[in-house]
Design brief:
single chain, 293 residues, alpha/beta, three-stranded mixed β-sheet, 15% strand
């Protein structure tokens, strides 16, 4: 449900988040529900502020039962440094709010019931989002770190896989807590939504990878210089295997050999991308025309 615009960004509230607020209302603790809503909202708009500071476009924000999602331009994932800064802004805002809460308590500006909940809410959201699992903020930092060594597709699959693992663990604990009476539906719902979101992130890995490849040409023209990575391949290896080790912010050169280890020529990453677009993933690299020497 669209709730309006904040800082020029469309704000949506997921129906299950509204259900969670309704549960707070029925339980007679709507004040706590509104605090949780405000904490999540500030967390997400900390991402918005950081993204805008770095020149990353933001389309909208959606509040979910386990937190929120800030949808930004696809270029953010292609720049690991920017992704780390934007991801870290959310948990940082929660730690700042927790520190402000402690200061308010020290100055006597404190509510004996809602004050501790405010601190607990901020610390829990910060700790939860620091887990190294997509789509959480810690998972985005983890992916940005992995992408430098293994590429965006492998990094996304590994970080999203951790997200699915954590989601399953949370759902199991939530179900056990519900049966034993130690917790309500909120933990179980959080686990299920986290699993759904992690699965969706994992399904996006091939598209992110192709976007990374398509962006490399413009990145080279913009920067003027990129570090090179030299690879060696046999001529019958398919392009889909050649591109697996490709890394962001590096330009790849492939030395092509035949089965007798004789040098056949060199192809550039730009040629490989053009070959992918023209002939598909199953073209042998030896079919590409080598660079003139």
């Amino acid at each position: 449900m669209r709730a309006g615009r904040v800082m020029g960004v469309d704000l949506y509230v997921n129906n299950f988040f509204l259900l969670l607020l309704a549960l707070f209302f029925i339980a007679g603790v709507l004040g706590k529900g509104l605090i949780a809503f405000s904490v999540v909202l500030i967390h997400e708009f900390a991402h918005v502020a950081a993204a805008r500071r770095l020149g990353v476009p933001v389309s909208d924000v959606e509040l979910l039962p386990f937190g929120g999602v800030t949808r930004m331009g696809g270029d953010l994932v292609m720049d690991p440094v920017k992704e780390v800064y934007v991801a870290a802004a959310g948990p940082a805002s929660n730690l700042i709010m927790a520190a402000l809460g402690v200061a308010m308590k020290n100055y006597g500006l404190w509510h004996n019931e809602l004050g501790p909940f405010f601190l607990q809410c901020n610390l829990l959201i910060a700790a939860f989002n620091l887990l190294p699992a997509l789509p959480l903020d810690g998972g985005r930092v983890y992916r940005a770190h992995l992408a430098r060594q293994s590429g965006i597709r492998e990094a996304t699959c590994r970080a999203a896989g951790l997200g699915q693992w954590w989601a399953a663990a949370i759902a199991v604990l939530g179900a056990a807590g519900l049966v034993t009476g130690y917790s309500g539906l909120d933990i179980l719902i959080t686990g299920l939504f986290l699993f759904y979101a992690a699965t969706r992130e994992r399904s996006m890995a091939p598209y992110l990878f192709m976007g990374q490849l398509a962006q490399k040409k413009s990145e080279l023209f913009r920067a003027g210089v990129l570090p090179a990575e030299i690879m060696v391949s046999l001529e019958d290896v398919l392009l889909k295997e050649i591109i697996k080790p490709f890394l962001p912010r590096k330009f790849h050169l492939v030395l092509v050999l035949n089965r007798q280890w004789q040098y056949r020529g060199m192809v550039t990453e730009a040629q490989i991308i053009d070959g992918l677009l023209a002939h598909g993933l199953d073209l042998p690299v030896g079919k590409l025309p080598p660079v003139a020497e």
